[in-house]
Amino acid sequence: MSKEEIGKREEKKNITPEITSALRRNIVKVPEIIKKRASGITIFGKTIYSLIFTTDIAIIENTNADCIIAVYPFTPHPAITQAIMSVADIPVLCGVGGGMTSGLRSVNIALHAEFQGALGVVLNAPTPLDTVSAVKETVDIPVILTIVSEHTDVRKKIEAGADILNVSGGGKTVDIVRMIRNEYPDLPIIATGGGEEGSILETIEAGANAISYTPPTNGEIFRHKMDEYRAREAMKYIK
User: Fold this and answer.
1) Would you tell me how many other CB atoms lie within 10 Å of the CB of residue 108?
2) Superfamily of domain 25-238
3) What is the DSSP string of 106-143?
4) Rounded Cα distance, 92 and 103, in Å
5) What 8-state DSSP symbol labels residue 31?
6) 4-53: per-residue pLDDT in tens?
7) Which of 195, 223, 203, 199 minimizes the C-alpha distance to 53?
């Protein structure tokens, strides 16, 4: 076999077959650059490259992301976790408080999330260190702690029990990721990457192992769909 034939065969090995259908083709896809460039984080044998930041069960049912990061700006409740887990066919990282909710309530919600099948639990930035430690001592799944500022004492968060950091620092996210990576070369880091390939790549190059992607809202997606339907109706009359 010639070198050219060997090269073609190797090239074919890198092509991933895709199976879909007319009804399932219209899904929320995360940017391809994430899987191409991110190293990923392996949790219990499952490698996570992309996470979709949503609690919308319609989007959760229709996405190609590797994982759901289900955090929301309300008091965490087991009913929300249960609803998401009943729909998701990919791993879920569940928010269990840290802002308005902490202490024993966060611990109980985290334990419930584990029993429901969550792959990990997410604590928000203001979470007291004793709550981080209590959750870590209680659950047998990773504890993910959100970092929102370059002024956060990351070392104390790690010592309290954080297994993975979730960096969401707005315009400073890349700088925060780079700062953490320089000090902790092997620490798993999830980070928001924005919607553009350039910003996602910059975040990955700064040291993020996995990227959290915020999808368009249900309303935004539906608006485009309705525009398409209106155009179809207009074409009927033109003919």
Assistant:
1) 16
2) Phosphoenolpyruvate-binding domains (3.20.20.60)
3) HHHHHHHHHHHT-SEEEE-TT--HHHHHHHHHH-SS-E
4) 22
5) P
6) 655 555 555 567 787 878 777 788 999 999 999 999 999 999 999 999 99
7) 195
